[in-house]
Specification:
Number of helices: 4
Number of strands: 0
Order of helices and strands: HHHH
Helix content: 40-55%
Radius of gyration: 23 Å
């Protein structure tokens, strides 16, 4: 019995940046709950077992570390997308087909100049944007 080769939809660097973002968000949430608990203004508090930081100063340090991880990770994500050309390939609302047809009607629609355009001449975008 032959196994089919695994097909990856996204490159490894993309999956890595997304998982780093998920980790950073979890750290920010857990440390944010500890920061929230340190405030005397609120009656509700989160259980200490699900918070991060131990005390207010430690929670702030974890929170800011996760913030910088998100910022640096976002810059890396943007730079790799720009350098590889993936940004224009995957995120551009207007991509001409190989036949060289113009996509100006799609660009107008995606920029809010029109609501509906014909789908006969351009790439696979929704009919009504």
């Amino acid at each position: 019995m032959l196994q089919q080769p695994s097909v990856s939809t996204h490159p490894r660097w993309l999956r890595l940046t997304h998982w780093l973002n998920a980790l950073a968000v979890l750290v920010m949430v857990a440390s944010g709950w500890r920061i929230y608990n340190a405030s005397p203004l609120y009656d509700f508090s989160f259980p200490p077992s699900i918070t991060l930081g131990g005390w207010l100063g430690g929670a702030l340090q974890w929170h800011f570390a996760a913030m910088w991880l998100l910022v640096i990770n976002g810059v890396i994500y943007l730079l790799v997308n720009l350098i590889s050309g993936r940004l224009s390939r995957r995120f551009s609302p207007c991509r001409p087909r190989a036949s060289g047809t113009t996509c100006w009607p799609r660009c107008e629609a995606s920029w809010g100049m029109r609501t509906c355009v014909s789908t006969t001449r351009c790439s696979a975008l929704p009919t009504c944007l």
